[in-house]
Amino acid sequence: MLDLVAVAFWAMLPAYVPNNAAVLAGGGAPIDGGRTMGGRRLLGDGKTWRGTAVGTAVGVLLAQVLNLVAPTVGQSIGVDLPTFPLAAAVGLALGAMLGDIGASFLKRRTGRERGAAFPVVDQLDFVAGALVCAALFDFGWFIETFTLPVVVVVLLLTPVLHVATNAIAYLLGLKDEPY
Ligand code: CTP
Ligand code: MG
Ligand code: K
């Protein structure tokens, strides 16, 4: 059980970090360029080119660091930790950003202003994006790494981690809302 949690957490790290990096790097031009659809912003000012690019880059870089330390860390906790081929790393990091962007599109279409909470979607949008893109970019790696039990742990663990991380970012004054 602990093995599953360790593998799930490790395999998702390149998808967890991009959203937090985007919060720190955000600002600048919005992806939608201010365009609207049905009187509402397509995505809103919370989805920027810079946040998306930096978030993706940080996730891919983190995967390289994890690749270097996987044997050492794995041995010390007695778990066979996965490494990340480049395509898988890009899939996880970019996919996490795209999932979050997709959720903003849905939020705007359902009348939610920038920053409004969208429970469940807020907690799992980036997981869905990361898993779909990782599968598209490196299917062999994906099915080997994300076995059904690992996916189940990811789906249970991520909302808890997401709520905790964002609450901390809010308390530190890095984020405007605690979700
Ligand atoms: N951010 C960014 N680019 C992204 C994602 C996030 O620049 N692709 C930055 C923005 O500064 C954003 C902050 O990270 O305001 C927090 O991200 P998030 O909570 O996802 O955005 P919200 O501002 O809450 O907007 P939305 O309602 O569209 O989710
Ligand atoms: Mg938000
Ligand atoms: K979000």
Automatic annotation (TrEMBL):
<dbReference type="InterPro" id="IPR002726">
    <property type="entry name" value="CarS_archaea"/>
</dbReference>
<feature type="transmembrane region" description="Helical">
    <location>
        <begin position="126"/>
        <end position="143"/>
    </location>
</feature>
<feature type="transmembrane region" description="Helical">
    <location>
        <begin position="49"/>
        <end position="69"/>
    </location>
</feature>
<comment type="function">
    <text>Catalyzes the formation of CDP-2,3-bis-(O-geranylgeranyl)-sn-glycerol (CDP-archaeol) from 2,3-bis-(O-geranylgeranyl)-sn-glycerol 1-phosphate (DGGGP) and CTP. This reaction is the third ether-bond-formation step in the biosynthesis of archaeal membrane lipids.</text>
</comment>
<feature type="transmembrane region" description="Helical">
    <location>
        <begin position="150"/>
        <end position="172"/>
    </location>
</feature>
<keyword id="KW-0548">Nucleotidyltransferase</keyword>
<keyword id="KW-1133">Transmembrane helix</keyword>
<keyword id="KW-1208">Phospholipid metabolism</keyword>
<keyword id="KW-1003">Cell membrane</keyword>
<dbReference type="InterPro" id="IPR032690">
    <property type="entry name" value="CarS"/>
</dbReference>
<dbReference type="GO" id="GO:0005886">
    <property type="term" value="C:plasma membrane"/>
</dbReference>
<keyword id="KW-0460">Magnesium</keyword>
<feature type="transmembrane region" description="Helical">
    <location>
        <begin position="81"/>
        <end position="106"/>
    </location>
</feature>
<protein>
    <recommendedName>
        <fullName>CDP-archaeol synthase</fullName>
        <ecNumber>2.7.7.67</ecNumber>
    </recommendedName>
</protein>
<dbReference type="Pfam" id="PF01864">
    <property type="entry name" value="CarS-like"/>
</dbReference>
<dbReference type="GO" id="GO:0046474">
    <property type="term" value="P:glycerophospholipid biosynthetic process"/>
</dbReference>
<comment type="similarity">
    <text>Belongs to the CDP-archaeol synthase family.</text>
</comment>
<comment type="pathway">
    <text>Membrane lipid metabolism; glycerophospholipid metabolism.</text>
</comment>
<keyword id="KW-0443">Lipid metabolism</keyword>
<keyword id="KW-0808">Transferase</keyword>
<keyword id="KW-0594">Phospholipid biosynthesis</keyword>
<keyword id="KW-0472">Membrane</keyword>
<keyword id="KW-0444">Lipid biosynthesis</keyword>
<keyword id="KW-0812">Transmembrane</keyword>
<dbReference type="GO" id="GO:0043338">
    <property type="term" value="F:CDP-2,3-bis-(O-geranylgeranyl)-sn-glycerol synthase activity"/>
</dbReference>
